[in-house]
Protein backbone atom coordinates (compact mmCIF):
# COMPACT_ATOMS: atom_id res chain seq x y z
CA UNK A 1 0.00 0.00 0.00
CA UNK A 2 0.96 3.65 -0.44
CA UNK A 3 0.15 6.40 2.06
CA UNK A 4 -0.15 10.04 1.04
CA UNK A 5 0.10 12.84 3.62
CA UNK A 6 -1.39 16.25 2.83
CA UNK A 7 0.47 18.57 5.23
CA UNK A 8 -0.22 21.81 3.37
CA UNK A 9 -1.13 23.69 6.57
CA UNK A 10 1.81 22.45 8.66
CA UNK A 11 4.68 24.88 8.89
CA UNK A 12 6.86 26.69 11.40
CA UNK A 13 8.25 25.11 14.55
CA UNK A 14 5.10 24.35 16.54
CA UNK A 15 3.38 21.22 17.76
CA UNK A 16 2.09 20.20 14.32
CA UNK A 17 5.61 19.99 12.91
CA UNK A 18 6.82 18.17 16.02
CA UNK A 19 4.01 15.62 15.69
CA UNK A 20 4.70 14.95 12.02
CA UNK A 21 8.46 14.78 12.54
CA UNK A 22 8.29 12.42 15.51
CA UNK A 23 5.63 10.11 14.05
CA UNK A 24 7.60 9.66 10.83
CA UNK A 25 10.84 9.22 12.77
CA UNK A 26 9.33 6.42 14.87
CA UNK A 27 7.22 4.82 12.13
CA UNK A 28 7.70 1.39 10.61
CA UNK A 29 5.23 1.55 7.69
CA UNK A 30 6.12 -1.89 6.32
CA UNK A 31 4.75 -3.50 9.48
CA UNK A 32 1.32 -2.23 8.45
CA UNK A 33 1.56 -2.97 4.75
CA UNK A 34 2.81 0.40 3.49
CA UNK A 35 5.72 0.26 1.04
CA UNK A 36 5.89 4.01 0.46
CA UNK A 37 4.81 7.26 2.13
CA UNK A 38 4.49 10.47 0.11
CA UNK A 39 4.58 13.70 2.10
CA UNK A 40 3.37 16.93 0.48
CA UNK A 41 4.39 20.08 2.35
CA UNK A 42 6.45 23.30 2.21
CA UNK A 43 10.23 23.38 2.13
CA UNK A 44 10.73 24.27 5.80
CA UNK A 45 8.53 21.41 7.00
CA UNK A 46 10.11 18.89 4.64
CA UNK A 47 13.55 19.99 5.84
CA UNK A 48 12.53 19.22 9.45
CA UNK A 49 11.60 15.62 8.59
CA UNK A 50 14.24 12.91 8.79
CA UNK A 51 15.01 11.18 5.48
CA UNK A 52 13.79 7.59 5.22
CA UNK A 53 14.15 5.05 2.43
CA UNK A 54 10.38 4.65 2.26
CA UNK A 55 9.59 8.40 2.47
CA UNK A 56 9.15 10.58 -0.59
CA UNK A 57 9.21 14.30 0.18
CA UNK A 58 7.09 16.06 -2.43
CA UNK A 59 7.22 19.84 -2.81
CA UNK A 60 5.16 22.37 -4.74
CA UNK A 61 6.00 26.12 -4.73
CA UNK A 62 2.39 26.87 -3.75
CA UNK A 63 3.05 25.21 -0.39
CA UNK A 64 5.55 27.93 0.54
CA UNK A 65 3.01 30.72 0.01
CA UNK A 66 0.10 32.02 2.07
CA UNK A 67 -2.85 30.09 3.44
CA UNK A 68 -5.11 30.79 0.45
CA UNK A 69 -2.53 29.44 -1.98
CA UNK A 70 -1.88 26.35 0.14
CA UNK A 71 -5.58 25.63 0.70
CA UNK A 72 -6.33 26.01 -3.01
CA UNK A 73 -3.52 23.59 -3.84
CA UNK A 74 -4.96 21.04 -1.41
CA UNK A 75 -8.49 21.39 -2.73
CA UNK A 76 -7.60 21.35 -6.44
CA UNK A 77 -4.39 19.37 -6.88
CA UNK A 78 -3.76 16.81 -4.18
CA UNK A 79 -6.51 14.43 -5.32
CA UNK A 80 -4.97 14.09 -8.78
CA UNK A 81 -1.47 13.73 -7.32
CA UNK A 82 -2.58 11.06 -4.84
CA UNK A 83 -4.47 9.18 -7.54
CA UNK A 84 -1.51 9.35 -9.92
CA UNK A 85 0.77 8.03 -7.15
CA UNK A 86 -1.71 5.20 -6.51
CA UNK A 87 -2.19 6.15 -2.87
CA UNK A 88 -4.41 3.77 -0.94
CA UNK A 89 -5.27 6.35 1.72
CA UNK A 90 -4.62 10.05 2.29
CA UNK A 91 -3.82 11.38 5.77
CA UNK A 92 -4.69 15.00 6.55
CA UNK A 93 -3.04 15.62 9.97
CA UNK A 94 -4.77 18.72 11.29
CA UNK A 95 -5.61 20.59 8.09
CA UNK A 96 -8.97 21.26 6.48
CA UNK A 97 -9.52 19.27 3.30
CA UNK A 98 -11.96 19.91 0.46
CA UNK A 99 -10.48 17.64 -2.22
CA UNK A 100 -12.07 14.67 -3.95
CA UNK A 101 -9.63 11.88 -3.04
CA UNK A 102 -11.01 8.95 -1.05
CA UNK A 103 -10.37 7.47 1.38
CA UNK A 104 -8.87 10.08 3.65
CA UNK A 105 -8.31 10.25 7.40
CA UNK A 106 -8.62 13.62 9.12
CA UNK A 107 -7.15 14.65 12.45
CA UNK A 108 -8.50 17.11 15.02
CA UNK A 109 -5.82 19.36 16.56
CA UNK A 110 -7.46 22.72 17.32
CA UNK A 111 -10.13 22.83 20.02
CA UNK A 112 -10.85 26.58 20.00
CA UNK A 113 -13.18 26.54 16.93
CA UNK A 114 -15.39 24.00 18.69
CA UNK A 115 -15.90 25.78 22.02
CA UNK A 116 -18.12 28.86 21.77
CA UNK A 117 -17.37 30.00 25.30
CA UNK A 118 -13.68 30.23 24.41
CA UNK A 119 -14.24 31.81 21.00
CA UNK A 120 -16.35 34.56 22.58
CA UNK A 121 -13.31 35.80 24.49
CA UNK A 122 -12.06 37.28 21.21
CA UNK A 123 -15.14 39.39 20.40
CA UNK A 124 -15.66 40.36 16.77
CA UNK A 125 -11.96 40.26 16.00
CA UNK A 126 -9.95 38.74 13.12
CA UNK A 127 -9.07 35.78 15.35
CA UNK A 128 -12.74 35.14 16.12
CA UNK A 129 -13.53 35.20 12.39
CA UNK A 130 -10.65 32.82 11.74
CA UNK A 131 -11.92 30.39 14.38
CA UNK A 132 -15.44 30.67 12.98
CA UNK A 133 -14.24 29.80 9.48
CA UNK A 134 -12.19 26.92 10.87
CA UNK A 135 -15.26 25.62 12.67
CA UNK A 136 -17.04 25.44 9.32
CA UNK A 137 -14.17 24.09 7.20
CA UNK A 138 -12.97 21.54 9.74
CA UNK A 139 -16.48 20.32 10.54
CA UNK A 140 -16.98 19.70 6.83
CA UNK A 141 -13.61 17.97 6.60
CA UNK A 142 -14.43 15.66 9.51
CA UNK A 143 -17.94 14.80 8.31
CA UNK A 144 -16.71 13.84 4.85
CA UNK A 145 -13.74 11.81 6.07
CA UNK A 146 -13.44 8.04 6.06
CA UNK A 147 -11.75 8.06 9.46
CA UNK A 148 -10.99 10.48 12.29
CA UNK A 149 -8.07 10.79 14.68
CA UNK A 150 -8.48 12.63 17.97
CA UNK A 151 -5.80 13.42 20.52
CA UNK A 152 -7.98 12.87 23.61
CA UNK A 153 -11.32 11.39 24.63
CA UNK A 154 -12.40 14.91 25.59
CA UNK A 155 -11.77 16.09 22.03
CA UNK A 156 -13.59 13.12 20.55
CA UNK A 157 -16.69 13.85 22.63
CA UNK A 158 -16.63 17.63 22.25
CA UNK A 159 -15.74 17.91 18.58
CA UNK A 160 -17.80 14.84 17.73
CA UNK A 161 -20.89 16.41 19.28
CA UNK A 162 -20.47 19.47 17.04
CA UNK A 163 -19.78 17.70 13.74
CA UNK A 164 -22.05 14.72 14.36
CA UNK A 165 -19.24 12.24 13.86
CA UNK A 166 -20.00 8.79 15.27
CA UNK A 167 -17.53 7.43 17.80
CA UNK A 168 -17.24 4.21 15.80
CA UNK A 169 -15.52 6.07 12.95
CA UNK A 170 -12.83 7.55 15.16
CA UNK A 171 -9.68 6.62 17.04
CA UNK A 172 -8.03 8.44 19.96
CA UNK A 173 -4.27 8.57 19.34
CA UNK A 174 -2.43 10.95 21.69
CA UNK A 175 0.96 12.49 21.04
CA UNK A 176 4.18 11.30 22.61
CA UNK A 177 6.86 13.00 24.71
CA UNK A 178 10.51 13.46 23.78
CA UNK A 179 12.98 11.60 26.02
CA UNK A 180 14.72 14.81 27.15
CA UNK A 181 11.61 15.70 29.17
CA UNK A 182 12.56 13.73 32.26
CA UNK A 183 13.39 14.42 35.92
CA UNK A 184 16.73 16.13 36.41
CA UNK A 185 19.45 13.67 37.39
CA UNK A 186 20.87 16.21 39.82
CA UNK A 187 17.47 17.33 41.05
CA UNK A 188 16.21 16.87 44.59
CA UNK A 189 13.03 15.09 45.61
CA UNK A 190 9.81 17.09 45.10
CA UNK A 191 9.29 16.72 48.85
CA UNK A 192 12.53 18.53 49.65
CA UNK A 193 12.49 22.18 50.71
CA UNK A 194 13.62 24.38 47.79
CA UNK A 195 17.03 26.04 47.78
CA UNK A 196 16.90 29.30 49.71
CA UNK A 197 13.39 28.51 50.89
CA UNK A 198 11.81 30.09 47.78
CA UNK A 199 9.41 27.98 45.70
CA UNK A 200 9.99 28.52 42.00
CA UNK A 201 6.73 28.39 40.05
CA UNK A 202 6.76 27.90 36.28
CA UNK A 203 4.04 28.35 33.65
CA UNK A 204 4.92 27.56 30.02
CA UNK A 205 2.36 28.44 27.36
CA UNK A 206 1.59 31.03 24.71
CA UNK A 207 0.22 34.24 26.20
CA UNK A 208 -3.37 33.99 25.00
CA UNK A 209 -6.84 34.78 26.26
CA UNK A 210 -7.63 31.20 27.26
CA UNK A 211 -4.31 30.72 29.07
CA UNK A 212 -5.03 33.18 31.93
CA UNK A 213 -1.42 34.08 32.82
CA UNK A 214 -2.58 37.33 34.47
CA UNK A 215 -4.64 35.28 36.95
CA UNK A 216 -1.50 33.34 37.87
CA UNK A 217 0.32 36.65 38.48
CA UNK A 218 -2.54 37.73 40.76
CA UNK A 219 -2.31 34.40 42.59
CA UNK A 220 1.40 34.94 43.24
CA UNK A 221 0.65 38.33 44.75
CA UNK A 222 -1.93 36.70 47.05
CA UNK A 223 0.54 34.00 48.07
CA UNK A 224 3.20 36.56 48.93
CA UNK A 225 0.72 38.58 50.99
CA UNK A 226 0.01 35.40 52.94
CA UNK A 227 3.71 35.09 53.72
CA UNK A 228 4.72 32.43 51.21
CA UNK A 229 8.08 32.83 49.51
CA UNK A 230 7.38 32.18 45.85
CA UNK A 231 8.52 33.50 42.52
CA UNK A 232 7.05 32.91 39.07
CA UNK A 233 8.54 32.46 35.61
CA UNK A 234 6.30 32.76 32.56
CA UNK A 235 7.48 31.43 29.18
CA UNK A 236 5.76 31.63 25.81
CA UNK A 237 5.18 33.80 22.74
CA UNK A 238 2.46 36.44 23.11
CA UNK A 239 -0.65 37.40 21.13
CA UNK A 240 -1.16 41.19 21.27
CA UNK A 241 -4.44 41.52 23.20
CA UNK A 242 -3.52 38.86 25.74
CA UNK A 243 -0.04 40.40 26.06
CA UNK A 244 -1.62 43.70 27.09
CA UNK A 245 -3.61 41.94 29.82
CA UNK A 246 -0.43 40.32 31.12
CA UNK A 247 1.46 43.61 30.93
CA UNK A 248 -1.21 45.36 33.01
CA UNK A 249 -1.08 42.55 35.58
CA UNK A 250 2.70 42.87 35.80
CA UNK A 251 2.52 46.66 36.11
CA UNK A 252 -0.01 46.46 38.93
CA UNK A 253 1.75 43.58 40.70
CA UNK A 254 2.13 44.63 44.34
CA UNK A 255 4.22 41.69 45.51
CA UNK A 256 7.96 41.50 45.95
CA UNK A 257 9.78 43.26 43.09
CA UNK A 258 11.56 40.99 40.63
CA UNK A 259 9.77 37.82 41.70
CA UNK A 260 7.66 37.54 38.53
CA UNK A 261 9.54 37.19 35.26
CA UNK A 262 8.25 36.91 31.72
CA UNK A 263 10.94 35.44 29.46
CA UNK A 264 8.99 35.55 26.21
CA UNK A 265 9.40 32.72 23.73
CA UNK A 266 12.08 30.13 24.49
CA UNK A 267 13.35 27.56 21.99
CA UNK A 268 11.53 24.27 22.43
CA UNK A 269 14.92 22.54 22.53
CA UNK A 270 15.69 24.45 25.75
CA UNK A 271 12.37 24.05 27.56
CA UNK A 272 13.20 20.87 29.47
CA UNK A 273 15.85 22.75 31.46
CA UNK A 274 13.26 25.26 32.67
CA UNK A 275 10.88 22.48 33.74
CA UNK A 276 13.65 20.69 35.62
CA UNK A 277 14.66 23.86 37.47
CA UNK A 278 11.13 24.57 38.75
CA UNK A 279 9.68 23.42 42.08
CA UNK A 280 5.99 23.60 41.10
CA UNK A 281 4.42 23.77 37.65
CA UNK A 282 1.22 25.78 37.12
CA UNK A 283 -1.04 25.14 34.14
CA UNK A 284 -3.99 27.51 33.83
CA UNK A 285 -5.38 26.88 30.34
CA UNK A 286 -9.12 26.56 29.87
CA UNK A 287 -9.13 25.08 26.34
CA UNK A 288 -6.97 22.29 24.92
CA UNK A 289 -7.19 19.33 22.58
CA UNK A 290 -4.24 17.54 24.19
CA UNK A 291 -2.07 19.65 26.55
CA UNK A 292 1.45 18.75 25.39
CA UNK A 293 2.98 21.25 27.82
CA UNK A 294 1.24 19.55 30.72
CA UNK A 295 2.60 16.19 29.54
CA UNK A 296 6.12 17.64 29.43
CA UNK A 297 5.83 18.93 33.00
CA UNK A 298 4.51 15.54 34.15
CA UNK A 299 7.41 13.77 32.44
CA UNK A 300 9.85 16.05 34.28
CA UNK A 301 8.42 14.85 37.60
CA UNK A 302 7.00 18.19 38.76
CA UNK A 303 4.22 18.69 41.32
CA UNK A 304 1.44 20.37 39.31
CA UNK A 305 -1.31 22.85 40.12
CA UNK A 306 -3.66 22.47 37.17
CA UNK A 307 -6.77 23.85 35.50
CA UNK A 308 -9.82 21.65 35.94
CA UNK A 309 -11.15 22.51 32.46
CA UNK A 310 -10.99 20.61 29.17
CA UNK A 311 -8.98 17.37 28.91
CA UNK A 312 -6.61 18.24 31.75
CA UNK A 313 -8.24 15.90 34.32
CA UNK A 314 -8.25 13.14 31.68
CA UNK A 315 -4.50 13.49 31.20
CA UNK A 316 -3.29 14.32 34.72
CA UNK A 317 -5.97 12.29 36.53
CA UNK A 318 -5.25 12.30 40.28
CA UNK A 319 -1.70 13.51 39.72
CA UNK A 320 -2.36 17.19 40.38
CA UNK A 321 -4.19 19.75 42.51
CA UNK A 322 -6.94 21.38 40.47
CA UNK A 323 -8.36 24.91 40.25
CA UNK A 324 -10.69 27.12 38.22
CA UNK A 325 -8.27 28.91 35.83
CA UNK A 326 -10.29 32.12 35.98
CA UNK A 327 -10.01 32.38 39.76
CA UNK A 328 -6.73 33.69 41.14
CA UNK A 329 -7.92 32.69 44.61
CA UNK A 330 -8.36 29.05 43.57
CA UNK A 331 -4.97 29.08 41.83
CA UNK A 332 -3.34 30.40 45.00
CA UNK A 333 -5.15 27.77 47.09
CA UNK A 334 -3.94 24.92 44.87
CA UNK A 335 -0.34 26.14 45.04
CA UNK A 336 -0.67 26.59 48.82
CA UNK A 337 -1.64 22.94 49.22
CA UNK A 338 1.49 21.86 47.39
CA UNK A 339 3.76 24.25 49.27
CA UNK A 340 2.47 23.23 52.69
CA UNK A 341 2.65 19.46 52.14
CA UNK A 342 5.96 17.85 51.11
CA UNK A 343 4.16 14.50 51.06
CA UNK A 344 1.52 15.83 48.65
CA UNK A 345 4.20 17.24 46.34
CA UNK A 346 6.01 13.93 46.25
CA UNK A 347 2.83 11.91 45.75
CA UNK A 348 1.44 14.07 42.95
CA UNK A 349 4.77 14.32 41.14
CA UNK A 350 5.18 10.54 41.21
CA UNK A 351 1.67 9.96 39.90
CA UNK A 352 2.08 12.47 37.07
CA UNK A 353 5.45 11.01 36.10
CA UNK A 354 3.94 7.51 35.98
CA UNK A 355 1.02 8.62 33.81
CA UNK A 356 3.36 10.46 31.42
CA UNK A 357 5.09 7.17 30.57
CA UNK A 358 1.94 6.02 28.80
CA UNK A 359 2.65 8.63 26.08
CA UNK A 360 5.36 7.80 23.54
CA UNK A 361 6.01 8.67 19.90
CA UNK A 362 6.56 5.00 19.16
CA UNK A 363 3.05 4.20 20.39
CA UNK A 364 1.65 7.22 18.53
CA UNK A 365 3.32 6.11 15.27
CA UNK A 366 2.21 2.50 15.70
CA UNK A 367 -1.40 3.39 16.43
CA UNK A 368 -1.53 5.98 13.63
CA UNK A 369 -0.23 3.65 10.92
CA UNK A 370 -2.38 0.78 12.18
CA UNK A 371 -5.50 2.93 11.90
CA UNK A 372 -4.53 4.32 8.48
CA UNK A 373 -4.05 0.76 7.21
CA UNK A 374 -7.40 -0.24 8.70
CA UNK A 375 -9.21 2.58 6.90
CA UNK A 376 -7.47 1.75 3.61
CA UNK A 377 -8.40 -1.93 3.86
CA UNK A 378 -11.98 -1.12 4.82
CA UNK A 379 -12.37 1.23 1.84
CA UNK A 380 -10.85 -1.33 -0.51
CA UNK A 381 -13.23 -4.01 0.73
CA UNK A 382 -16.27 -1.76 0.33
CA UNK A 383 -15.17 -0.67 -3.16
CA UNK A 384 -14.59 -4.24 -4.35
CA UNK A 385 -17.37 -6.38 -2.85
CA UNK A 386 -17.24 -10.06 -3.63
Task: Write a structural description.
The chain has a seven-stranded parallel sheet. It has a six-stranded parallel sheet with strand order 10-9-8-11-12-13, with helices on both faces. The protein has 386 residues and is of the alpha/beta class. It has two domains: 2-176 and 360-380, Rossmann fold; 195-356, Glycogen Phosphorylase B (Rossmann fold, 3-Layer(aba) Sandwich), CATH 3.40.50.2000. It has helices at residues 15-26, 43-48, 67-76, 78-84, 116-119, 126-144, 153-163, 213-225, 240-251, 271-277, 292-299, 312-316, 328-340, 342-356, 361-383, and strands at residues 2-6, 36-40, 55-58, 89-92, 104-107, 147-150, 170-172, 199-204, 230-235, 260-262, 280-283, 304-307, 321-323.
Write the layout of secondary structure elements.
Blueprint: E1 2-6, H1 15-26, E2 36-40, H2 43-48, E3 55-58, H3 67-76, H4 78-84, E4 89-92, E5 104-107, H5 116-119, H6 126-144, E6 147-150, H7 153-163, E7 170-172, E8 199-204, H8 213-225, E9 230-235, H9 240-251, E10 260-262, H10 271-277, E11 280-283, H11 292-299, E12 304-307, H12 312-316, E13 321-323, H13 328-340, H14 342-356, H15 361-383
Parallel strand pairs: 1-2, 1-4, 2-3, 4-5, 5-6, 6-7, 8-9, 8-11, 9-10, 11-12, 12-13
Helix pairs in contact: 1-15, 8-9, 8-13, 11-14
Number of strands: 13
Radius of gyration: 22 Å
CATH topology of the largest domain: Rossmann fold
Q: What's the CATH architecture name of the largest domain?
A: 3-Layer(aba) Sandwich
Please supply descriptive tags for the structure shown above.
386 residues, globular, alpha/beta, 7-stranded parallel sheet, 6-stranded parallel sheet, Rossmann fold
